[in-house]
Amino acid sequence: MTWKDIILLTGFRGEKAKKIWAYVGGILLYMLVSIWLSHISESKAKYISALNRENRRLRSEYISLQSQLMTKQLRSNIYRELKDDGFVLPKRPPYQIVKDEK
Fold first, then answer.
1. What is the DSSP string of 31-76?
2. Structural domain boundaries of the chain?
3. Which of 2, 17, 35, 82 could form a disulfide with 87 if both were Cys (CB 3.0 to 4.6 A apart)?
4. Residue-wise pLDDT tens digits, 56-80
């Protein structure tokens, strides 16, 4: 096969043209399917990356809210906030009422 035959595509016009076109069609089909599958996998990777970013954001928000809740639940902070309303710390602990079951 010479350069002239390659340029004029004479190999695609002979007796074995159907077989050659079938190979070319198969190769093109394979290329299209592989490109399509790579696009699908890339879009899924982007989706997973976005979900991971959202997960990290929600986790950090959860941790910050949890630390805020823990500081607000401290007994000293609660008494400090209620001091303006007239509440004071008791000097002795409360009594525990126990019911005898007979």
1. HHHHHHHHHHHHHHHHHHHHHHHHHHHHHHHHHHHHHHHHHHT-HH
2. 3-84
3. 82
4. 999 999 999 999 999 888 878 888 8
Provide CB contacts within 8 A for 78, sequence distance 6+: 72
Provide the whole-model pTM. Answer: 0.56
d(CA 77, CA 89): 12
**What are the tens digits of pLDDT across the range 5-50?**
666 777 677 777 788 888 889 999 999 999 999 999 999 999 999 9
Instruction: Identify residue 102 by its one-letter amino acid code.
Output: K
Give me the torsion for CA of 26, 31, 33, 39, rounded to 10°: 180
